[in-house]
Amino acid sequence: MRYYPDPAGGVGLSRLNRVIEEAFAEHARGMVQMPPKVYITLKEGDFRTMPAYIPSLGIAGVKIVNVHPENRGKGLPTVMALTVLLNVETGLPYAILNATDLTDLRTGAAGAVAAKYLSPRRSVSLGVVGSGRQAEAQIQAIAQELQVREVLVWSRNEKNATHLCERLDLPDCRSASLSRVCGCNLLVTTTPSRVPLIRDEWIQEGTHINAIGADAPGKEELDPAILLRSRVFVDDPAQAVHSGEVNVPIRMGLFSEGMIAGTLGEVILGMKKRMRPEEITIFDSTGLAIQDLAIAAIALEGQEGIELKFP
Amino acid sequence: MRYYPDPAGGVGLSRLNRVIEEAFAEHARGMVQMPPKVYITLKEGDFRTMPAYIPSLGIAGVKIVNVHPENRGKGLPTVMALTVLLNVETGLPYAILNATDLTDLRTGAAGAVAAKYLSPRRSVSLGVVGSGRQAEAQIQAIAQELQVREVLVWSRNEKNATHLCERLDLPDCRSASLSRVCGCNLLVTTTPSRVPLIRDEWIQEGTHINAIGADAPGKEELDPAILLRSRVFVDDPAQAVHSGEVNVPIRMGLFSEGMIAGTLGEVILGMKKRMRPEEITIFDSTGLAIQDLAIAAIALEGQEGIELKFP
Questions:
Q1: What would the mean pLDDT of A33-37 be, rounded to a whole number?
Q2: Is A265 helix (H, G, I), strand (E, B) or coil?
Q3: What was the ipTM of the complex prediction?
Q4: When you count CB atoms within 10 A of the terminal residue's CB, does the N or C end of chain A come out lower?
Q5: Is the dihedral of CA B130, B136, B137, B143 positive or negative?
Q6: Which phi and psi angles does B67 have, rounded to 5°?
Q7: CB contact under 8 A, B82 and A67
Q8: Whether residue B169 has pLDDT greater than 90
């Protein structure tokens, strides 16, 4: 058994997008095992246990990930993750990965795959709401799939938006007002908001939106009116209803599971799609255990790790 | 974060029985979080993911454990387990334990606690069916709670029974026929059988039975007729119905969930009990995630572990 303290360093983003795409396709084919995430509630946060098995990639394991919003004041990340991989022939645990950065990357990759299939344009102006690690992961992954002409970033603290642009090696990236950002034809929302920040009137026809921030009951970023005039795709219907962007509108009776147009996997397989260039599409991402396995599979390549005595 | 390659060595069995008893009591009080085990089916076996949180012990985490019967031919244990512990304040994973031996010990401790409360005698003749690691764990844990006058062991291979007795430091331990073993007034069954090995006519009034072997759908060790004339306690009703000794009789319509007399935790709290000295009692053990956390809590004391860089 080996421990990998920093497995994110060697992950090639273009290759990552392909393996994430393959994992979603296998999900839509019904060829993976992925029970619902299991939540345990702690005092000031929670942790989620995410087991899965992807036979076509020969990979099985469990991600364990916490969410503790108060951790920043304690000098710890809000989200920390470990992935344990088990040999699919013998059940032997053979790898433990520090999966905190991998979690950001695999979520970015899902957004990139969604944008590749659902954006009606190959060349986009990219609006990003939020300026944290997920904002960066989305921009970099999307830039592998589409030509990004410009990036407009909104952050509650404008400095953070500027800093994000400085970190990125992209031609035209700048801070902008929320309404300007939402006027882009590809929009990514990455905040932990519990109120709909994004107003209906800001969203133009033909926009594709990656709604990434909502990943727990009570979280939402978009005015539900946007959902009602959009074609809404999800990563997994059960998880989306429980904790995705659609969870609050569904609980309020404004939206229903039956209104979900399909899954990202079904889009990849061509079973579902954007119907017209002028319609709005939304990808509601909650994060799947199969994404964690797919990125782990390629993260270990070329990594040494630290040998641990087991069994 | 630290890795503990051999945390079982320092576990005191008497202390272990007490912390396992406390965990079961908290379970009966409704003061733990323990979602059902999640099963993933691999090619030649499966693995189970077992998250839990015991606030009174300040411990939360996940055990990941496989079952691969074909592993012996590959030089690997059938069952291998890892436990990951998370800080209950921050969600930080702070310990990874090699939990293979701990799994044996915590199951033995549950049997000892059940025998302490449900055996009508303080001094017992102990019959043990099977001669593997769990047989040994049960005998040693029970010897902490009751005076064990003699131990009779049955194994399909008699040599293994003799070897088990040689390993144990007990006054009177010997191999015996299955019917003789089943005539003891405290009986422990620890085989992976899928047919009822234990015949109804062998079991005397006043016997207490720890039914340990059945831990997956399709497994059973006892003639269902024994269940019908016994008071049957379980560790957890949902798990027992799914995979415990009662799972096959329930599926065959011979037994029902409503016939379960109560849980071990309820027995510890005095809410349920053996009613008469001459009745037969059964403890149907499937193994709970809270047992894994309870033993982890004391296993780490005094252990150094290996420092791993995280987050």
A1: 95
A2: helix
A3: 0.94
A4: C
A5: positive
A6: -135, 110
A7: no
A8: no
Is the minimum CB–CB distance between A310 and chain B shorter than 8 Å? yes
A residues 247..306 contacting B (CB < 8 A) = 306
Of B51, B98, B100, the CB nearest to A49: B51
Sign of CA dihedral A202, A207, A212, A215: positive
pLDDT band at B302 (very low <50, low <70, confident <90, very high): confident
Report how far residue A10's alpha carbon sits from residue B70's, in angstroms, rounded to the nearest whole number: 35
CB contact set of B276 (below 8 Å; sequence gap of 6+): none
The pLDDT tens digits for B257-269 are: 999 999 999 999 9
* Nearest CA-CA distance, residue B45 and chain A, Å: 7
Q: Where are the domains of chain B?
A: 2-103+290-307, 107-287
Question: Which residue of chain B is at minimal alpha-carbon distance from A68?
Answer: B90
Q: Which residues on neighbouring strands pair with residue B4, listed in sequence order?
A: B97
Per-residue pLDDT of A13-24, as tens digits, reads: 999 999 999 999
Residue A170: per-residue pLDDT: 83
Topology given in CATH for the domain delimited by A107-288: Rossmann fold (3.40.50)
Q: Radius of gyration of chain B from Cα atoms?
A: 19
- Which residues 154-193 in chain A show a CB within 8 A of chain B? none
Q: Choose the closest CB to A80 out of B5, B49, B91.
A: B91
Point out the residue among B45, B84, B91 whose CB comes nearest to the CB of A45: B91
Neighbours of B301 (CB within 10 A): 11
B63 is known as an active-site residue: yes
A150 and A125 Cβ atoms separated by less than 8 Å: yes
Inter-chain residue contact B90 with A71, CB threshold 8 Å: yes
Peptide bond between residue A311 and the one before it cis (omega within 30 degrees of 0)? yes
A93 near B CB under 8 A: yes
User: Which helix (H) or strand (E) covers residue A180, if one does?
Assistant: helix A178-182
Q: Look at residue B171 and tell me whether its pLDDT is greater than 90.
A: no
- Domain B107-287 superfamily per CATH: NAD(P)-binding Rossmann-like Domain (3.40.50.720)
Residue A31 contacts B, CB cutoff 8 Å: no
Instruction: Report chain A's mean pLDDT, rounded to a whole number.
Output: 97
Supply the CATH classification number for the domain B2-103+290-307. Answer: 3.30.1780.10
Q: What confidence score (pLDDT) does residue A171 get? A: 80
Q: Do A42 and B88 touch (CB under 8 A)?
A: yes
pLDDT score, position A302 = 85
- Average pLDDT over chain B, rounded to an integer: 97
Distance in angstroms (rounded) separating the CA atoms of residues B215 and A185 = 55
Instruction: Tell me the two tokens of residue A49.
Output: 């246990």
Please count the residues of chain B.
311
Predicted TM-score (pTM) above 0.90: yes
Q: What is the per-residue pLDDT for B125? A: 98
pLDDT tens digit sequence for B94-136: 999 999 999 999 999 999 999 999 999 999 999 999 999 999 9
Given the structure tokens 């027995």, which residue do they identify?
B267
Residue B91 CA to residue A310 CA, distance in Å, equals: 25
For residue range A64-91, what is the model confidence (pLDDT) as tens digits? 999 998 998 999 999 999 999 999 999 9
Q: For residues A241 and B302, what is the distance between their CA atoms, to the nearest angstrom?
A: 46
